[in-house]
Amino acid sequence: MVQAAKAPIEAGSLVLTYMDRTGRIAVDQLADGFGMSKTQLAETAGLARETLYRVERSRAQRTQGRLREMLEIISRVSDWAGGKEQAMAWYRAQPLPAFGGRTAEALVKDGKAAAVRDYLDHMAVGGFA
């Protein structure tokens, strides 16, 4: 399987906020930061519940990638959404017309985070939904 290159992390990104010294997303801090249990966080990211309770699985590349994608999207909308909590609510509940009314959460769970990022980039430069 060919791995896509990771995009550089923008300054002020939520990814940096929740990254530990090893460069991994710190699951406990992330869950606490959004007032969620690890079970709720796993569900939001489209991961199995046990994944975030087992250290070796929470550090796996797939898990870390999914959490990073979720945080990148939430970070991109947090300014205009009114903060990270509102951005999380948008991520979980706002239907996106360009994707048949699916939410960013549903799209990330289906492996379409890049499409959501492209959509947000398009909207940021004045594009239409």
UniProtKB/TrEMBL annotation:
Keyword Repressor: no
Coiled coil residues, start to end: none
Domain of life: Bacteria
Signal peptide positions on this chain: none
Keyword ATP-binding attached: no
InterPro entries according to UniProt: Cro/C1-type_HTH (IPR001387), Xre/MbcA/ParS-like_toxin-bd (IPR024467)
Protein's recorded name: DNA-binding XRE family transcriptional regulator
Protein keywords: DNA-binding
A Pfam family that the UniProt record links to this protein: Xre_MbcA_ParS_C
Residues covered by the Antitoxin Xre/MbcA/ParS-like toxin-binding domain: 80-124
A GO MF term: DNA binding
